[in-house]
Amino acid sequence: MVMVKVPSRPVRQRPLTRLLLAAGVTATTLVAVPSAAQAAPPTEGDAKSGGKVLTVAVSQSVDSLSPFLAQKLLSTSIHRLTYEYLTNYDAKDAKPIPGLATEWKSSADKLTWTYTIRKDSKWSDGKPATAEDAAWTFNKMMTDPNAATANGSFTANFAKVTAPDAQTLVIQLKKPQATMTALDVPIVPKHVWEKVGDFSKFNNDKSFPIVGNGPFVITDFKVDQYLKLKPNKSFWRGAPKFDELVFKYYKDGDAAVAALQKGEVSFVPNLTPAQADALKTQKNIKVNDAPGRRFFALATNPGARAKDGKTFGNGHPALLDPAVRKALFLAVDRSTLIDKVFQGHAVEGEGYIPPRFGSYYWKPTATQKLAYDPAKAEQVLDAAGYKKNAAGKRVGKDGKALDFRILCHATDPNDKAIGKYLQEWWGKLGVGLKVECLDSVSDPWVKGDYDLAFDGWSVNPDPDYVLSIHTCGTLPATPKDTGATDNFICDPQFDALYAQQAVEYDAAKRADLVKQMQSRLYDTGYMNIMAYPNALEAYRTDQIASITTMPEAAGNIYGQDGYWSWWSAAPAGSSADDSDGGSSTGVVVGIAAAVVVVAGLGLFLAKRRRATADDRE
């Protein structure tokens, strides 16, 4: 047997030695230590409860409070706060640490995995959390397609899941699976969820408080208004320090920033460079500017289709021509976008995986790279038969002008700014572009009613999920269904590489396969990465005394892998708790002077999460 045993409570280490961070990273650690006079101004929550409330401004809607359906970053982050997963990620270096499971082991052939479930985890209604809950969760996903909507890729290879006793979970696989130490599936209470009928319609948002076993308990929710959580006093790792955590919805980013300045909210993510620069001079406000874990992409509709072979949507047929896709991206000046739109708070995009994840980071070769070259773009279109007419418009072989639409998130100023640049650059090619900015882009997207779209995902230490969403298996079953696909891409060559990396335990070999997948994705031209934005966020130091970033050196606060930020946050005026938790909790917003590179080193941590500002909504 191959045995992996981890202490039930992580051992704290000084942040000088980081197995997964490349050498040479320089960071400045900032700790906000407000005086007693800098007490947080009262909020509505304070007035009612007399406690300290941490309010987070968000611009994204909650798609579902059902862990079986939720895919958006806000929703999945909330589930991280309210349910335990089998394992968690260390805030220092993202290595796997205990969650609901205290240890795990695999058979020599890697086909049987046994997890020891902790004895000190309880559901918020007082009942014990056991291996039976975990087995029921996985079995429901294996037998009900609707329960596999959000996280089905994790259980697709499961052959059998059993719970021989309350503290033992056994998962038998059809073939080896490289993500068994990071099954990012919220474990739900069987005694509550076994009463649910149709998993495709149950959003878990009608009865409160919602039973969970994470550090927080959801107590109230109003669509596009707020979501409220209270500390789980019986949480095995220790209760959070704030008396209430509130995610408050703001459609307008400037309104959220104004609320931060007034002290009405404690934290604001996804700042524009202009907002961040303005906030840096504000009293009692700290800005975090760290290398990000997400990408900003230009996605093209490859022809929406379902598993049953039927096509749907109204994507422009010219985009099915590789020459057109190539020409469009040759006419995108990414360096200008970094300088003018992101104002230097981003890195120029190339491969699918951001440079923060060193072992999987890929760059195109010199001959492969589609560098900015508008003259070459003209040549490519000419050679492909898309000539300019007397009015200077490119026309297709059917005589129709090349006029495209691009889906834009109305709440994201980057989308709008980049849309204007694309209109200018492509206009010189003779290609028209209509920028369609919507409050919700999900409806036209899932229907295939778009030509291009601004897209983006947060990427985790293991890229399995963000790669899986481009496989044929994630397409919707029929045009009427919704699949887990991001952009309807279905490429047999990509699928073959995905299948190989999924069962490869050798870290170097797996990294090479992941790079080959990125190369293939780049060459097809359906997903063009334009930038890797920094995490630009800010919080009030007179409300939050300290908070954990991930990674500790130059990491992000919002949208972490795990629950460290909000669980660790200490109210201003209180003594910072120095208890362990996979990270030093008294800490620390790191602002990097260099890109933090996270290396794989054989960790198989699979997870996806869309970036708040540029996912489908």
Question: Would you spell out the secondary-structure blueprint of this structure?
Answer:
Blueprint: E1 2-5, E2 27-30, H1 44-49, E3 53-58, H2 73-82, E4 87-89, E5 96-98, E6 101-106, E7 112-117, H3 131-143, H4 152-155, E8 158-165, E9 168-173, H5 190-193, E10 216-222, E11 226-231, E12 244-249, H6 253-262, E13 267-268, H7 273-279, E14 285-290, E15 296-300, H8 322-330, H9 334-341, E16 346-348, H10 374-383, E17 403-409, H11 413-429, E18 432-438, H12 442-446, E19 452-455, E20 458-459, H13 464-468, H14 492-502, H15 507-524, E21 527-533, E22 535-540, E23 544-546, H16 564-568, E24 570-571, E25 589-592, E26 608-609
Parallel strand pairs: 3-12, 17-18, 17-19
Antiparallel strand pairs: 1-6, 2-25, 4-5, 6-7, 7-9, 8-9, 10-11, 11-12, 13-22, 14-22, 15-19, 15-21, 16-21, 20-26, 23-24
Helix pairs in contact: 8-10, 14-15
